[in-house]
Amino acid sequence: MLKKSLDETPEFLAGDKTHLREILHPHKDTSVKIGYSIAHARLSVGESSLPHRLAGSEVYHILEGEGIIHIDRQSIIIKKGDTIYVPPQSSQFVNNTGSTDLIFICIVEPAWTLDSEFVD
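RE: above sequence
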């Protein structure tokens, strides 16, 4: 068993300019036998992530706020409770268009690594 507290997980600025906290990662949490990684992400009011691509697939689950997600040539409004699948190699970025922080979970498969993300 492994239990982690979000408050004890350091936040860092990812290459795409999203504020991230890695919740579970099989390369860092070696007792966890999973093939994906999970991160808690935050974009402040008016912030946007940079367009980027991942080698693998990604799933976003929106916990708070609202915004627009851009995947390849499509854009959709996102809000609390929405879940979005991003296919591998898709160009993607998120705009926070709301009046509060946009907070979401990112699940990346296979597990995210620095060399699997390409900022456009």
